[in-house]
User: Which sequence fits this backbone?
């Protein structure tokens, strides 16, 4: 029994001395990280949706830029049909929780089709 007691005592001493030695350093690293937080200022958004008299233009400006840049429609392949843009608007609402009503989806899709999709080629002529 003497050897077990000695080993336990030595183990306890080792744990206590390790904690005593390293705890201040761990605490310092943990609590000082807030002092080194970076303050980052992002540049203002420069992208804008292409202006239009269609009602979907204002809806896109009010709702779509909440989550992503106006560059998003421009990154899609040109000439996409109305069904694509309507499906995208529905996906943004159902999957990503976009905060616009279902009644706004056709107007948004009309604007995106006319401005960035299949209708864009016709308006450039």
Assistant:
């Amino acid at each position: 029994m003497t050897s077990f007691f000695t080993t336990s005592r030595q183990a306890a001493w080792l744990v206590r001395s390790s904690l005593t030695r390293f705890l201040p350093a761990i605490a310092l690293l943990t609590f000082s990280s807030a002092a080194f937080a970076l303050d980052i200022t992002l540049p203002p958004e420069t992208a804008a949706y292409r202006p239009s008299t269609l009602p979907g233009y204002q809806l896109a400006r009010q709702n779509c830029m909440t989550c992503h840049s106006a560059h998003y429609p421009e990154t899609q392949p040109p000439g996409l049909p109305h069904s694509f843009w309507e499906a995208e608007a529905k996906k943004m609402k159902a999957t990503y929780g976009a905060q616009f009503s279902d009644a706004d989806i056709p107007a948004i899709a009309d604007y995106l089709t006319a401005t960035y999709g299949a209708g864009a080629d016709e308006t450039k002529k």
Remarks:
- The chain has a mean pLDDT of 83.
- The helical segments are 2-32, 55-63, 82-94, 105-116, 118-124.
- Residues 2-36 form one domain.
